[in-house]
Amino acid sequence: xxxxxxxxxxxxxxxxxxxxxxxxxxxxxxxxxxxxxxxxxxxxxxxxxxxxxxxxxxxxxxxxxxxxxxxxxxxxxxxxxxxxxxxxxxxxxxxxxxxxxxxxxxxxxxxxxxxxxxxxxxxxxxxxxxxxxxxxxxxxxxxxxxxxxxxxxxxxxxxxxxxxxxxxxxxxxxxxxxxxxxxxxxxxxxxxxxxxxxxxxxxxxxxxxxxxxxxxxxxxxxxxxxxxxxxxxxxxxxxxxxxxxxxxxxxxxxxxxxxxxxxxxxxxx
Length: 269
What we know:
Oligomer: single chain
CATH class: Alpha Beta
Largest sheet: 7 strands, parallel
Shape: globular
Order of helices and strands: HHHEHEHEEHEHEHEH
Number of helices: 9
Distance between the termini: 58 Å
Radius of gyration: 20 Å
CATH topology: Rossmann fold
Helix content: 40-55%
Strand order of the largest sheet: 4-3-2-1-5-6-7
């Protein structure tokens, strides 16, 4: 049965704010067919989301996207882990990209900033407003989840998953699907926290045993407790494998390059 407005916690007598309308864009989009005018407006909103993201992130340099829960705040051991990962990625010359929110996303961005590197975020408008964290050099806030996912993957040469929940697992499997189906190159995926991720790795092994995925697909994921081993894996399978380079801004398009003193040290070939 379909949930009623009361069951979903909605007040029919409440007057939605403009932000409430905006954060329901994905819900409205997925309701089914609408009028041609409304469908065109959805397309224009998505186009504006993409355009804004492309302009903000075009010159951030080669990125590593770090996934992780928004619920592990400062003081949690996972937060300290996120800071270390962010700092180490910055030390390798990568720009650290996250979903731009709190928790382990903030930790990775904070570590990158403290490590002297670049820190960027792709935030998302939510009914319970998610503010960008304070450690971002650049941030784009998307209205649509699917636009945000494209941006997180478009500029990244590797993916690191810290402990997280449904959103983290969703983004992780999106990366796995794109790589498995060869929609993107075979970028490395690292899971940090062997005990935390054991149920997921066991599931993948079960899928391979049942023939639902190839045994070779298990090698798409590298799981470790060691940040040193994680960085060594990225060094071999991201920096050494791909020709990483920087794009230069054009004055004709009013584009801004990276901030002075934040140049990447990833070696180009």
